[in-house]
Amino acid sequence: MTDSTGDGRMRSLKANSSLNLLSSINATTNSIRRGLRQKLSDEPLERFERVKRDIAVVLVVIVALLLFNEGLKLIAGTEVPLAIVEGYSMWPTYDDGDILLVVRAIPSDLKVGDVIIYRKYDGTLVVHRIVDKSFIDGKWFFKTQGDNNLYPDPYLVSEDQVVGRVAGKLVPKVGVVFKAMMPYKYVITCLLIVIAVVLAIRPSDKKERGPVEPFEEEGG
Questions:
Q1: pTM of the model
Q2: Which of 160, 85, 171 is nearest to 129 (CA)?
């Protein structure tokens, strides 16, 4: 005689075990899906936050350059503390659009290899490297050449023409924008300050969105 009660109990236990297993699999699947949905929703926001922060930093740098140009004249001891490279005569050392920091130059202290800014007789400012120097009739004269030029400049630069010595590259490639902004520097400075402040304090969408709703299968 077969114990139908025992068989029924075994079938019931197996069914319950299968249901528990399916429930665990379903819960795990939903958990993975929620994690993926959360990750996919977080990554764009994190990238946005990084981009927003980088933009704010760039704006602060531009504002600083616009505001402190006059103060830099006193600190650097030269009439042109910031110089914008135009052209490629100094490439690859300095590229078109680079902003250079210029400091006061004492003619007797300048040496071969130094990069100087000098003013030509027509008023044009030139950034070239000293390749030779000489002392003539109580004054220093310098032979200069661009790093990307085959030959030296066809004239000597008097110490009276030297505006300053290049201390280094301050900001690469944004000089064209900076130069275009100079005539409107006070208006643009105010606008950039407002934009930088808004970017810095604006709450992210991540904080406003709240938790991600769990994913539900239809008919589950």
A1: 0.55
A2: 85
